[in-house]
Amino acid sequence: MKRCLSFLLCSIIMCFAFAGCNNGTNDQSTSETETKTGSNLSVSAENEYDAPDSTANIIEVKSTADSAYSDDLSELVSASEEVIRGQVQKVVFTNFEGAAWTKADVLITESLKGTHKKGDTVSVFMLGGYISLTDHIAQNKDDSRFADLSKEQISKTFLKETVDNEEFVSKGADLIMCLVPTLEDSPLPKGAYERIAYAGQLSVDKNGNFIQTISGGEKTKTYSYDDIKKIVKK
C-alpha cells in the first residue's frame, strides 16, 4: 500500500480483530478569522467524521513508522518551524489516499518558537485514526481481502489504524507540539501542520511536568516546562 507522507515512511502490519467501539480530494478550506486574542487558522478536510458509534464493527490495524529524526528533543525542536503549547479544541478523523488520519484543532496558549502567537488556532494532522471499510476498499482496491464480509457488514465496519501504539489525542489535552507545515505535494490541506515526529509531542502530567513518549510507546522522558524553554532557546 503506497502512502504519501511528509515525514513518515510506514510499514503496515495488519492485525485484524473485530470489536465494538464506544464512544478526498485536496479541495479543503482554510478559516482565517480574527478573534479578540488571535487568528483562527484551522483548516478543513473534505471528508471529516467523528469516531464510529457502538453499533459499528471495528477492525484494528497496527502500524509502525520510521521517522527521519531521532527521539532527541533538542534535535526535534531545532528542526521544527513551530513549537507550541496548546489545548486541543476539537478532534475529528479523515482519510487521504486510503490512510486514516486524525485532525486536531489546537488553541495556542504559548508560542515557544515560530510565527504564531497566543490565541491562534491551528490544525495538526497525525497519521492514524478511523476510516470506514467502504472508503478503505474504494481507495486501496483490495476488496478481495474482505471477501468473507457481506456488503451490509462492510457498510458497518471501520478500520482503527494505530501507529506505534499511540493513543489518539483527546479534546481538552494540554500538549507541547513540535510542528512543520505540510509539504506542497502532500495530500493534506494547504495551511495544515504535522508533528515533526511522534516524539515531538509532549503531554502534561498531574505534577505539571511534560512527558515525551519515545517512538514505539514503550519508553518516556520527563521534562519540566523550564527545561523545555531552555531547549528551545539553545
Describe the structure in brief.
The chain is built from four helices and 17 strands. By secondary structure, it is mostly beta strands. It has one domain.
Question: If you had to describe this structure to a student in words, what would you say it looks like?
Answer:
The protein is mainly beta and 234 residues long. The strands form four sheets. Strands 1, 2, 7, 11 and 12 form a five-stranded mixed β-sheet that branches. The model is unreliable at 1-31 (pLDDT under 50). It has helices spanning 73-79, 133-140, 151-155, 225-233, and strands at 8-13, 18-20, 29-30, 33-34, 39-40, 43-44, 57-67, 82-96, 99-113, 121-127, 129-132, 157-163, 174-181, 193-195, 201-204, 210-213, 220-223.
Topology of this protein?
Elements lengths: L7 E6 L4 E3 L8 E2 L2 E2 L4 E2 L2 E2 L12 E11 L5 H7 L2 E15 L2 E15 L7 E7 L1 E4 H8 L10 H5 L1 E7 L10 E8 L11 E3 L5 E4 L5 E4 L6 E4 L1 H9 L1
Parallel strand pairs: 7-12, 10-14
Antiparallel strand pairs: 1-7, 2-7, 3-6, 4-5, 8-9, 8-13, 9-10, 11-12, 13-14, 13-15, 15-16, 16-17
